[in-house]
Amino acid sequence: MNPSSSLSTPQTMEAIVSLAKRRGFVYQASEIYGGIRGFWDYGPLGVLLKNNIRDWWWRCMVECPPVGPDGKIVDMVGLDSAIIQHPKTWEASGHTATFADPMRKCEKCGHILRADHYWDILTTQSKWFDELIKATDNGSKTDPDTLIRWVKNKARKSAPNLAANTFSNFAPPPNPDLHQLIRYLADQQDPCILCGGRLGDPEQFNLMMISYAGLQQTSENLVYLRPETAQGIFLNYKNILDTTRVKVPFGVAQVGKSFRNEVTPRNFIFRSREFEQMEMEFFCPPDEALKWYEFWKHQRMQWWLSLGIAPSNLRFRDHEPNELSHYSKATVDIEYKYPFTAPDFGELEGIAHRGDFDLTQHQKYSGAKLEYFDQDLQLRLKEQGASQDEIRQKSRYVPNVIEPASGLTRAVLVLLCEAYRYDESRPSKEYFAFKPRFAPVKVGIFPLVNKDGMPEIAEKLYLNLRKRLTCEYDPKQSIGKRYARMDEIGTPFCVTIDGETTSHQTVTVRHRDTQAQDKVHLSQVEAYLLERLNDESTSSSI
RNA sequence: GCGGCGGUAGCUCAAUGGUAGAGUACUAGCCUUCCAAGCUAGUUGUUGAGGGUUCGAGUCCCUUCCGCCGCUCCA
């Protein structure tokens, strides 16, 4: 990409959102009703772009996966599991516990905290609580004078919304413990740890979307829309082992929708409540997990580069130990420099070493046996002269899992950002320089003018080419206008039927990025285009 | 969720409390032999939604929805 023509600023983002709407890539969902927060519709061109990325991922992961670090072919299969699974799935995965906490919200400042951890959070994180501790000599000096002094001075700043009782009838209970004292100060309420404001009643804040399977909306019928596609793979791990001929190490890949009640959906399609994921779970022997983690980390970065993204716009970011999810032994994010995060980076894909957490959990909750008996390993150990005990112990295990999990809808966003160009000197100042493989429309087919037999030839060529390529035929208006329109939606090639087509059987192929033109024989057009659409080296642009 | 700003045609934007407009796009026709040319005609609005004040509201007030920016959140 050309950095000079592509500025990474919020203004760029607005231009991209506007162009994406205008040309039918992405619409806000339910727009005629005023829109609905966190949901987006992919228009005629958006769905083509999204499908192209999805198909490339599927091709690179399932049909043509990379050869393993030991030079051996790895087994990889696909899956499309249900969005709704047994509710116990989410208990086992930890989502119910971590997603469904009772939360309380401060009515003054809006701070949200866990209701069941109120006292812990207050005593460890509240500034005004620290001051109160000091002022009352660790809760031993709770006479009205001391308290009034604290309320009138320090608390005025650190806890402005603390509903301290009127000073005239200030009468804290005798020898209160700290919790009693604070409830007294806050007028019998638990006050906000930040501002001292009144906390609302506890509410279930569930980041998983809820529905009911069955006619009655009872707790027995409660189900969740999946917050990630991964669990569907773990649930089918045994099915796949039993019904296909894969052997550990192997991977299962899946593309599909996931749903999360994000607190703040924002930044166009970056964080939405319904989104599409491309996830792969790679099952391997425990002592090979780190090797495969490094392998996939590298492979996944190569894949993003294969979309034509500038290396300088991508980076790895290792998760800090305290940042790791409850299941993960190591996680690295692949991040992209989005216009709205620049010069910072934002998440694009996470590659997690999940250990044996998921399979062990599902084994525990379901009672199904999810161990793997590794005959290859048994043989190898035998050859190495290991003891019977060691062989028995080592060749039966719960596989470890390496999970590259990426967002398909985020990939769409990245390509829109990465391919966006602004160039004053061109007829269409704005255009998308998609790598040909991902362009929604590959070829525009035009008669130079709408007469002299040119439309007939162009139409025939269109009917022929569209069998293999996404094409558009357009005989209307000036040729420059039609080129510009194609540039704007990122079409890499235009084929124009001109006067020489009737006399010499040649057409003009016009290239989006350079605006250069080639003469090609009519019979060679298809081969000419196919060669350039599939050739990696033609990607002068993204 | 909180605070600030905003929402008018598909898009970019005008419009002292007094007739809702421009550019562009789009459609049809003419013209046009390679980069958004021109001419003619045409389509396009519950001014985000709901309520209020007023003789009269795009404009003032209230509520709500959506968006942007900053916090907060993002197992």
List the helices and strands and how they pair.
Blueprint: H1 10-22, E1 26-28, E2 40-42, H2 44-63, E3 75-79, H3 88-93, H4 95-99, E4 102-105, E5 112-114, H5 118-125, H6 127-135, H7 144-152, H8 154-158, H9 178-185, E6 203-204, E7 209-212, E8 222-225, H10 230-235, H11 237-243, E9 250-259, E10 274-284, H12 289-306, E11 314-318, E12 330-336, E13 346-355, H13 357-366, E14 372-373, H14 375-383, H15 388-394, E15 396-397, E16 400-407, H16 408-419, E17 420-422, E18 430-432, E19 443-447, H17 454-465, E20 471-473, H18 479-488, E21 493-497, H19 499-504, E22 506-511, E23 517-521, H20 525-534
Parallel strand pairs: 3-9, 19-20, 19-21
Antiparallel strand pairs: 1-2, 4-5, 4-6, 7-8, 9-10, 10-16, 11-12, 12-13, 13-16, 14-15, 17-18, 21-22, 22-23
Helix pairs in contact: 2-16, 14-15
The structure holds one RNA strand of 75 nucleotides.
